[in-house]
Amino acid sequence: MMPSKPDNPSFVPNPGPVLRALAKDAGATRIIALCDENTLRHCLPKLHTHFDHTLVFKPGEAEKTLATAEKIWQHLAHWQITRKDLLVCVGGGVICDLGAFAASVYQRGMPFALVPTSLLAMTDAALGGKTGVNLGPLKNYVGSFATPVGIVLHLPMLETLDEKEMREGWAEMFKHAAIADAELWRAYEERAITTKAPEPDLLERSMAIKLRIVAEDPLEKGERKLLNFGHTLGHALESWHLEKHLSLPHGEAVAAGMWMEAWLSEKTGQAEAGTHVRIAALIDRHYPALSIPESAVPAIAAYCRFDKKNEADRVLCTLLRRCGEGVIHCPVRAEQIEAAIRSYCAWER
What we know:
By secondary structure, the protein is an alpha/beta fold. It has 13 helices and ten strands.
C-alpha cells in the first residue's frame, strides 16, 4: 500500500458514525479494533461503536516488535479477516505505528483507520503515512509507507492523559515550530503550556506543518527529513535505553534530541548565534534533564550510525538555521555527537 496524498485528519464530536462510514466506504464487512489495555479501558468506550473483534496488547514500547505484529496477523487469519475488512487502531504512537504496519502487509495490505488517543500520536504517529516496528533496540527499523482510509481525532481522548503524557506530545509541537514557524516558536517561548491540552487551533496549526511537508515529499526523499529534527539523537537515546531495558518516553527523548541537535547546529556553523540558547531554554523549562552516565556517551553516539537518514556511512542530521527554519543533510562526526551529549549533561540549569 503505497501512500497517496495524505488524508486530512478529521476532528469529530462523535467517532462512531465516522468509523462506520469509513468502513462502508472501504467496502469493509467487519471492523476489528486494535488497542492496548489502557485504551481499552479509557478510550474505546468513547467511540460508541461496535467492533466485530478486539485485539488487546500490553501498553508500552516493548510491544512494538515483529513478534507482536505476527500475533496480530495470526489473530486476523484465525478470524478469517480479509482485505474486505477494516482494522481500527485506537491508541498512542505504539498502537498507531504497530497497527498500521500490520495492516499494510497483511494479505499485502488491508484497509486501516487511525484513532490517535494521545497528543503525541495526534501530532506525529498518526500523520504522514509512516508505519513501523522496532528491530531490537533500533527504533522503527522495519516498516512501510501506507495511507489510512481515515484519521479520526476526538479531542476528549486527551482528557485521559496525565501531565507527563501531555508533555510528550508538546515535544513534537515544539519541533514543528522549530523547523518551520518562527512566529509559533516565539508564541511557545512566551507561555507555559506543556501540562495542558493545546487549544484546537494551535493543535491544527502544528499538524498543518507536518501535513504540508508530507504532502510535498510523502516518501521522505528530501524536505520531509525536516521532520527528523531532534530524532537522530532522540532515537539514539531511546535505543540505548531499550538496550538497557530502561524506560524513556519518546517525547522526552525528542526534547533532549532537539537540545543536542540545536547545540550541533551552532557548533557546525549551520545556525545563527543564539539559536541553541533559545531551544535549550524552552526545553529545559518543560522537561527534566535526562540522567546520562558518561560511560553511555560513546554507545549513544554509535547508535546514530543506524539512523535511516544516513548515506554512505555518514551521519546526516536535520539541524537548524535559526528558530523556525530547519536544514537537512547536515553531516556530523562521532566526536561532535559525543560533545553534544556531554554539553547537555554539563549544562547548568
